[in-house]
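Form P-L/3: holo structure prediction, ligand adenosine-5'-diphosphate.
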Amino acid sequence: MFNKILIANRGEIALRVIRACREMDIASVAVHSTADSDAMHVRMADEAICIGPAPSSESYLSVPAIISACEISGAEAIHPGYGFLSENASFVQIVEDHDLTFIGPSAAHIRMMGDKITAKETAKKLGIPVVPGSEGGVPDLDTARSVAAGMGYPVIIKATAGGGGRGMKVATSETELEAAFRTARTEAKAAFGNDEVYIEKYLQRPRHIEIQVFGDGKGNAVHLGERDCSLQRRHQKVLEEAPGPSISQRERDHIGGICARAVAEMGYSGAGTIEFLYEDGNFYFIEMNTRLQVEHPVTEAIFGVDLVREQIRVAAGHPLSFTQDDLQINGHAIEVRINAEKLPNFAPCPGQVKTFHAPGGLGVRMDSALYGGYRIPPYYDSLVAKLIVHGRDRPEALARLRRALGELIIDGIDTTVPLFFALLEQEAVRGGDYNIHWLEKFLAEALE
Ligand code: ADP
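OUTPUT (holo model):
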């Protein structure tokens, strides 16, 4: 096992990894920018190293600075968290070239899934059902027209290198196609430096269902059921739950089995998530994330396993510590993402937190790097806390969520907490009866 791990991240996810390290008796090294000198992850880690100025491009994304921090501290492995360098195959290669261990899959697997066209082709070969769409990239407008006409409108144009919900445009008719195609390409070029796009059938009322998988690179692989992440704004998740309210045990075993077999066949090592759109009982692959997800705690709650601990063990060369039969679902869990944003427009509003009080009690987990007096820097993501509740069933989890939100105090800044109180009043949310478009419609109506 490792003696020391460096965490190439910040905020709640850096704390999450530090916590796992501490329970495993592994020393932790935090890295931080000058804007994060008084951040909680810096205080909680055993050691901390400043790796550059505030902009992430010069600190959290600076590969030479992170590798140097490993060498200075004697860390043997790097946990990338999510975002930043977590899905950067060249970073993984550099880490390995320095005889360090990357806690995550191989550079080859990251590369394979990072390009969405290759990912879809790989998924197809492994027997995973995919969304109908173009065969590979769509180079020009004429091809786009004929692909879309063949498939029927509406269609969605997506960036091959896409991520974070960016570079996606919907066209409901041929008249809209030209503008959508051009905008998607321009946005893809600006966001990812690659303007290649592909086309998919735009599903009208799907749910976003994702399967948590885990492999040990030794031929063992399992799935840890699904998460329903359909409540989204601008293709970004807002609330996630597990198990999915619409998924039966038979469907879970079926799609989970397909995913676990695919992961075993790939020789994949570490945690991963295979994302699907789900409509009328059918699953359609959209992408695979080769890292830990923001919403991993709902899966941890219902299966009672520590996914970060497992990531570390597998990276150190141990086989998986559980088999598929060991993994039984217990109850229901819900996570809400609390952002430092002002409603109704979700404008980021960093600032100083005056008072912070985290809720507690049975079945309540708060993953946050906030503390009273902390000044949230304006340079990074607006996620400031994840509140996760676990109950024996969905109604209990919903009641617990409302109770816990009522105990939470974050004074001094605006947050998205009022949105969750409003959602808990909605019949669709109470009944688990929503799809990926529901939240946008709800917000549009609330603003009228
Ligand atoms: P990203 O990597 O940018 O997050 P994804 O491919 O994972 O992009 O898609 C993000 C979200 O966009 C999905 O959860 C869904 O809400 C929407 N989306 C993507 N593809 C389609 C599609 N073919 N039809 C309808 N919605 C889609």
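COMMENT: Residues 356 and 371 are 6 Å apart (CA to CA).
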